[in-house]
Amino acid sequence: MKNIIVLGAGMVGSAMATDLSIKHRVTLTDLNMERLNHVKSKCPELTVLQLDVCDQAKLHSTIQDFDLVVCAVPGFLGFETLRHTIEAGKNVVDISFFPENALDLNKLAKEKGVTAIVDCGVAPGMDNIILGYYNERLKLTDFECLVGGLPKIKKWPFCYKAPFSPIDVIEEYTRPARYVENGNIIVREPLTDSEFIEFEKVGTLEAFNSDGLRSILFTMPHIKNMKEKTLRYPGHVEYVRVLKESGFFDKKKISVNGIEISPLDVTSKILFNEWKLGEHEEELTIMRVTLSGHNPDGAFEKVVYNLYDEYDRISQTSSMARTTGYTATAVANMFLEGLFTEKGVFPPELIGKHEACFDYILNYLKERNIHYIMTTTNDF
């Protein structure tokens, strides 16, 4: 049994802390004490502690006595929190999905003798792990990830609910999307190249460009074609593009009756209620990862992994919290059991390349009723 501290008591952070408490002593921290008390009422085994991760000295002293730090703070706090954690010499598993490049901290992590495993969610996360595994077994030419979290009940106009802050969702809609085509990195506006794709159990969904490749742009430059697209119910993209093109996502302040205000702040405030996922509201996560390449015999091979997961009524845990959080807790337990011992910063594809790590994570998720269904075709 190890001592673990989880930074961030949001929907995913709380799910991770609860899951980790099955085998370990877990302390859950957040700035919001009301939120902490609510989580503890559902999982009395947890120790809760109010903590401002922006207070570097306090963060440094608080995490010293723990065997592992699990970071689940909002994206805009993620990079600095990770840096401070590494500077404190603590091993860390991170799912904060910040926009900065985590590999910039690799030198620091090695100097401190720290293992930092980042982007440990569903996507980025499991798609990277799958990619890393097959990159060792096939000469890959193509990689595609289609992924989305959706409410089971559609509500007009957006037919969408977010298990995290709307400001992080809007970031996905405004950050330029990068993908790889014929070996070249292409930068496009997000919400572009939309297409309708059929999925079992869900039906038709709309896929559009988003900036989800992240680390694999740099760790897998030999793969000629790579793309990630976000999935939504049909019609969502058009409504969001109208808001974006009309200036509702602009950060630059405008004057309204003599008051300086950011359109993005107003939009986020309004959409918080419109997009907020209720604590017991049922939703689903769907993902399709497709890889193509040649096996050692030279034959073409196509591998597809499909995920369909729903809100867990028994544990009252959202699907996005399960599929994201339990990937991270799988990695945390894998690390604590000594299956991965390298020092530095490691995105998930550099973990999945190891067969023992890959198998451990998939089996851990299966035990929690999260199933990735694989199919493969060969051309001999």
UniProtKB/TrEMBL annotation:
InterPro entries on file: AASS, NAD(P)-bd_dom_sf, Sacchrp_dh-like_C, Sacchrp_dh_NADP-bd
Stretches assigned to the Saccharopine dehydrogenase NADP binding domain: 4-117
Keywords (A to Z) from UniProt: Oxidoreductase
GO molecular function: oxidoreductase activity
Pfam families: Sacchrp_dh_C (PF16653), Sacchrp_dh_NADP (PF03435)
Domain of life: Bacteria
Domain Saccharopine dehydrogenase-like C-terminal: 121-368
Protein's name according to its UniProt entry: Saccharopine dehydrogenase NADP-binding domain-containing protein
